[in-house]
Automatic annotation (TrEMBL):
Residues 10-81 form the TonB C-terminal domain. This is Energy transducer TonB. One of its GO terms (biological process) is transmembrane transport. InterPro entries: TonB_C (IPR037682). Gene3D superfamilies: 3.30.1150.10.
Length: 124
């Protein structure tokens, strides 16, 4: 799904929602219509304080339309949005099944907060 993203609006971090050296994630279930527009979104998990900003932003996202047998189709997917404690936010793409996400195995923290936690995978 990440490769099909055409336009992304970063959610705003509500004032005081998380501390400067903290991070948070919101996960949404999203329906994308035949034209590539987000037609529905459902809050799945994350901080309640971030729910509204994530829902407002996701409704402005657009995707390149999906096709099956040459016809545009509607699809459903999950979207993870990562909020940095310094007020920035960005989409986090779901793991690719190869052991990680772009950027390595560290979750970034705002400047002056030290290194982020290391993400360790347990072999299945």
């Amino acid at each position: 799904m990440a490769k099909r993203l055409d336009h992304v609006v970063a959610p705003k971090l509500p004032e005081g929602a998380i501390k400067k050296c903290s991070n948070a994630m919101v996960i949404l279930k999203v329906a994308v219509d035949e034209k590539g527009k987000v037609s529905d979104a459902e809050f799945v998990s994350g901080y309640d304080e971030l729910k509204d900003s994530a829902m407002v932003a996701i409704k402005e996202w657009t995707y390149k339309p999906y096709e099956k047998h040459g016809h545009a189709i509607a699809v459903r997917t999950s979207v993870s949005i990562f909020y940095l404690g310094d007020g920035e936010s960005f989409p986090v793409y779901m793991p690719d099944g190869k052991g990680g996400v772009k950027g390595g195995n560290m979750i970034p923290l705002p400047p002056g907060c030290g290194s982020g936690p290391v993400i360790k995978r347990t072999p299945s």
